[in-house]
Design brief:
five-stranded mixed beta sheet, 283 residues, RNA Polymerase Alpha Subunit, Chain A, domain 2
């Protein structure tokens, strides 16, 4: 006398002969399978030996359909007798739409912050687009896809990494490998500061002459490698000056403004030149 036992498991469903159509709404991806047979042979059957599928070859226009779930034996299941196979559900409801594809741009995702004093100034993708495939009704709303997150924490050098393109909708397929190369440019932040209304001093003016500047103050643009040094800098009263030592008689002259120096700081002066009128003193 044979003793029959029952075994249960779940297995993926296969959509066969979709042709130019694709599912346009969620549907059951796993089907419950019940096997009933002799105990000594039932457990020799692998889950992959029972293939669950629905045949889509009759459907070639958009719509919602109820389709019977079918099964076929493979492998070890072919030699097992008796074997009763039951599936749950016995049919699925499937919404279909025409299949289409298009290029979609990519958006980067980042976590963390680069090292203090540095900034990521730009990034790029190679390739910068992927081809996605899906039902027309869903593809209309897809304009870009994000990549997996790249951690920027502590970075101070430019980088290039391979990242996956994230697909949040199981009804949409990314063609190819689904990856892209993300390159980021990280640069050191140069501390800068502007100081206005800095007096312009006259130096080297000859005895018996006096000078009158058209502009009596200028501006200084500071750049340095040390933020504290740039922030603490205060120009001396004669930090900006013009050298009149080469002038020996009255007239109108245009002379270059000379800036002082400070360790670790670079200066740019505006204006770079100034007009001065030289006259005799009244003595």
């Amino acid at each position: 006398m044979s003793i029959l036992e029952t075994r249960f498991f779940s297995t993926p469903i296969i959509l066969e002969s979709l042709n130019a159509m694709m599912p346009s709404s969620p549907y059951p991806r796993m089907i419950k399978v019940s096997l009933k047979g002799e105990a000594n042979s039932l457990y020799s059957i692998l889950e992959d030996d029972i293939e669950i599928y629905v045949d889509m070859k009759e459907f070639d226009s958009p719509g919602t359909y109820k389709i019977p779930v079918q099964w076929r034996k493979k492998g070890a299941a072919l030699s097992v007798e008796p074997l009763q196979v039951t599936v749950d559900p016995m049919e699925i409801t499937l919404s279909l739409d025409h299949k289409t594809s298009k290029f979609v741009s990519l958006a980067a995702s980042f976590t963390g912050q680069v090292e203090s004093g540095y900034n990521m100034t730009s990034y790029s993708f190679n390739p910068n687009q992927v081809i996605v495939e899906g039902p027309v009704s869903l593809m209309e709303n897809i304009s870009e896809l994000s990549t997996e997150s790249v951690d920027l924490a502590g970075r101070r050098n430019s980088f290039s990494v391979t990242v996956s393109v994230l697909n949040q909708d199981p009804l949409v397929v990314i063609r190819g490998e689904g990856t892209t190369e993300l390159s980021g440019t990280i640069s050191q932040i140069i501390p800068v500061r502007n100081i206005t209304n800095v007096p312009i001093a006259l130096t080297g003016i000859h005895d018996g002459l006096t000078g009158e500047l058209e502009i009596k103050a200028g501006s200084i643009h500071l750049e340095g490698d040390n933020r504290d040094a740039v922030d603490r800098f205060e120009p001396a009263p004669d930090f900006l000056s013009i050298d009149c030592s080469g002038i020996s008689e009255p007239g109108i002259y245009i002379l270059q403004i000379i800036a002082g120096t400070a360790e670790g700081i670079r200066f740019r002066v505006e204006p770079q030149e100034v007009k001065i009128q030289i006259d005799f003193t009244g003595d």
